[in-house]
Amino acid sequence: MTRRQWFLVGLITASSLSLVNARYHERRLFTQIDRTERAGLKLDSDIEVLQVELTALRNPGRIDAAARRDLKMIPLRPTEPMYYRPASGAGGMR
Fold first, then answer.
1. CA geometry: angle at 69 spanning 66 and 75, to 5°?
2. With the C-alpha atoms ordered 19, 24, 27, 28, is the resulting torsion angle positive or negative?
3. In-domain check, residue 86
4. Please, what's the b/e burial string for 50-67 (b: 16 or more CB within 10 A of its CB; e: otherwise)?
5. According to a count of CB atoms within 10 Å of the terminal CB, is the N or C end of the chain lower?
6. Contact 76, 82 (CB under 8 A)
7. From CA 45, how far away is CA 56, in angstroms rounded?
8. What range defines the domain where residue 28 resides?
C-alpha cells in the first residue's frame, strides 16, 4: 500500500470514530432533553395542584371561620365604637 492509501485509511477510520462519538453524544443529549421535558410536565401539574389548593385556602368563608374559631374574633358592629388605648408604661411619646 502506498502512503496515500494509508493516509486515506487513517482518514476514514478517524471519520468513523468521530461519527460514532457524535451519535453517542446525540443519544445522550436526547435522553437528557426527554428527562427535562418530563420534569417540566411534572412541575406544570404540580403548579396547577398548588394553585387549586391556594384558591381553596384563600376562600373568605374559610378565613372567617378560622378567625372566629381559632382567634375568637367577632365581627365589628357599626353601633359599637371601639377605642384603642395603649397600655400604660409602653414607652410611648408624650
1. 80
2. negative
3. no
4. eeeeeeeeeeeeeeeeee
5. C
6. yes
7. 17
8. 3-70
Please count the structural domains in the chain. 1
Query: Phi, psi at residue 13, to the nearest 5°?
Result: -65, -45
Radius of gyration of the chain (CA): 36
Closest to 60 in 3D by CA, of 82, 75, 78, 77? 75
Quick check: is 42 in a domain? yes
pLDDT tens, the chain, 94 aa long: 899 999 999 999 999 999 999 999 999 999 999 999 999 999 999 999 999 999 988 888 888 888 889 988 888 888 888 788 888 765 555 4
* Greatest C-alpha distance within the chain: 111
Cell numbers 381559632 correspond to 70
